[in-house]
Amino acid sequence: MQFRDLQKQYQVLKKEIDKSINEVLTEGNFIMGRQVYLLEEQLASYTDSTYCLTCANGTDALKLALMAWDVKKGDAVFVPDFTFFSSGEVVADLGATPVFIDVDEKSYNLSGISLESSIKKVLSESSLNPKAIISVDLFGLPADYTRITQIARSYGLLLLEDGAQGFGGSINNHGIVKRACSFGDISTTSFFPAKPLGCYGDGGAIFTNNKEWAETIESLKIHGKGSNKYDNVRIGMNSRLDTIQAAILLPKLNAFKNYELAALSEIANYYNSLLKDYVETPVAPENFSSAWAQYTIKLEYPEKRKELIKFLDERGIPSAVYYTKPMHKQNAFQGNYLCFDHCPETTKLCSMVLSLPIHPYMGKADIEEISKNILDFFKK
Ligand SMILES: *Cc1c(COP(=O)(O)O)cnc(C)c1O
Question: How many CB atoms lie under 10 A from the CB of residue 325?
């Protein structure tokens, strides 16, 4: 059994993917070919964004957004303590200071209470300039954007949505459905193979409705180009999505929209129904819909998790811990970070969460086998 079976997906979509790759090989348009622009159009339309710019990976996507906002030394950027390293790495990379914020115990996403109190503390206790919030849609579930947007507005902060795991998730606000990657002033995603929408290598995208930022990012991602590639008006990066990756993503986006997302949701519901009496199962708040980048349960205490991992492993069932360490404990940030309350919720989650196999091509039998083993574990 595989944690996320990408081969199975390839077997189902093989004809379309092979054909699409072959078109690139035949056309020879390896850099910024027509497939890249076609994908950008489709991604913009799916997320209802005015602009979509693809780039080399999800980390670059975050960095390009912060560069467009001129985030620099002396700036404070608020980042959840419970996330993948990139979300904080890009802040430190630009010389700014990441301020790590605790997450909500149920959604695992940025806690509004912790966010607001940390902003106040940066204002009163530091000489840093509060600049932006990076909000992560962890495990596929959009963060609480009603609350976070309101906090961003009231303190004059920019909002960057890290939708690397959230792509495909949505919030239904009084009948108006908004998709992940449309909640930030700028939003980003990743096409790393194991993400909800993955390519066959590295890839990423940036979404915004702001023309000026879109134009700046378009320049930044191609060596700070001006009117052409050999007229350079700013220091930028080389961060483009390969045409072959765009060609792979086009048929995969169709499958994702047409049935994969619905399949994931069914799988998660089935897991929930089988496991809910034994472990804490993931909950989406009312009107929220997850992209199920991970299906993550919570055990009662750390030793229990260790035992369950071993028990499952001995029975050929893979599981994974996302994430083992709070961001504020990562060595790389020591010397340049703030964290006002030691993030107790994150610290707890790091020792108790466990992600189980999930992917759109998983059969009922696999879900039942995994769940049965978990039940056996609790009954032993
Ligand atoms: C994967 C991930 C990224 C980085 O994406 P890459 O394409 O691997 O650079 C950033 N943020 C989060 C939350 C992620 O899960």
Answer: 16
Q: Give the number of the atom of ligand 1 that is nearest the alpha carbon of residue 190.
A: 7
Among 52, 118, 58, 59, residue whose Cα is nearest residue 91: 59
CA 193 to ligand 1 center in whole angstroms? 11
* Ligand 1 center–CA 190 separation, angstroms: 6
Residues pairing with 189 in the sheet: 205
Asked if residue 264 lies in contact with residue 355, where contact means CB atoms within 8 angstroms, the answer is no
* Contact status, residue 130 vs residue 105, Cβ threshold 8 Å: no
Please confirm whether the linkage preceding 323 is cis (ω < 30° from 0): yes
Yes or no: say if 141 and 166 are a contact pair by the CB < 8 Å rule.
yes
Q: What is the pTM of this model?
A: 0.98
Residues with CB under 6 A from ligand 1: 57-59, 83-84, 86-87, 136, 162, 164-165, 190, 192, 202, 204
Which atom belonging to ligand 1 lies closest to the Cα atom of 293?
A: 15
- pLDDT, averaged across the chain: 97
User: Stretch 111-133: mean pLDDT, rounded?
Assistant: 98
